[in-house]
Amino acid sequence: MAIVGLLYVGAVLFINGLLLVGAVDPRAAAPMNLFVGALQVVTPTYLIFTSGGDPAVILAASGLYLFGFTYLYVGIGLLAGLDTTGVGWFSLFVAITALGYSVANFQLLGDPAFGVIWLYWAFLWALFFVVLGLKRDSLTNYTGWVTIIQSWVTAAIPAMLLLTGLWRNPTAIAIGLAIGGAVVFGGLYLLDRRRARRAPAPTPAPSVPAATG
């Protein structure tokens, strides 16, 4: 059940990445965030209630709420036109917590591939914090492309491999993801900074005389 949810996490990350790069209207992105947010709250609740108290199952399911609450927060914010600082600072909480889930996957669950994937998510939510919480708009485009890439690499593709029984050799996958992430996201950052330097300076908005009583 959690694997199915992971597939749709890929879908909503893809939409949100396109939103950040300006390809999707904010209100148009809201429904998918609400759909997947609700799914990622219902799914872990069901898994925990049916776990029989198994600590490993409860641990694995508990992390899904981080995604569910994020997407519900984003969806409601997009529809209501809320300021992004709330979801931005919540993203900092998610980023820090994701580091703990990464350690848990390495040390307790014996899953190095998802240990690295949780590091990917920690990095992504840290970017959300910087862009949405600290309002560093210069990183919006970069964050959008990181989101689009992660939608496939950390969610949609792993989910399809898991659903079809083709997810094999987690250690090799972990090594590939670790090296690939460093190269791709580092290179993407350099390209984005080069693009930003070459972009023409924005034209100053015309001043508006102050109104007098």
From TrEMBL:
Pfam families found in the cross-reference section: AmiS_UreI
Membrane topology: Multi-pass membrane protein
Protein name per the record: AmiS/UreI family transporter
UniProtKB keywords: Cell membrane, Membrane, Transmembrane, Transmembrane helix, Transport
Gene3D superfamilies for the chain: 1.25.40.600
Membership in a protein family: Belongs to the AmiS/UreI family.
Transmembrane segments: 6-24, 55-74, 86-104, 116-134, 146-167, 173-191
InterPro entries: AmiSUreI_transpt, AmiSUreI_transpt_sf
Subcellular location: Cell membrane
Chain segments annotated as coiled-coil in the UniProt record: none
